[in-house]
Amino acid sequence: MKSNELEERLIDFAVQIIELMNEIPKSKAGKHLSGQLLRSGTSPALNYGEAQSAESMKDFIHKLQLVLKELRESFVNLRILYKAKLYKNKSTLIFALKENNELIAIMVRSIQTSQKNLRS
């Protein structure tokens, strides 16, 4: 996957998260989790954009690790929302979980490849 394709996917994921926020109930738990998810779910696209201007390969890898960290936080948050049934549309949440999981796998592989290239 090319970097611009991955960036576009991360942006699309951020938009999915924003749209999902409108579906989460305004209960105390819903407000808490949606606030956290808004931050962690939109952050990967922003951090990936910053990684594109990394000053070194080590800096690039570090920024990718931040993207991965935020994606993992988002994934756990989405799982909590799912298990607590804090959603209006189950299929929207399941789609976000699937995409989040795929982005995690892509990011893990990107970090591994970058680390291998750094050692070469």
TrEMBL record:
<dbReference type="InterPro" id="IPR012657">
    <property type="entry name" value="23S_rRNA-intervening_sequence"/>
</dbReference>
<dbReference type="Pfam" id="PF05635">
    <property type="entry name" value="23S_rRNA_IVP"/>
</dbReference>
<protein>
    <submittedName>
        <fullName>Four helix bundle protein</fullName>
    </submittedName>
</protein>
<dbReference type="InterPro" id="IPR036583">
    <property type="entry name" value="23S_rRNA_IVS_sf"/>
</dbReference>
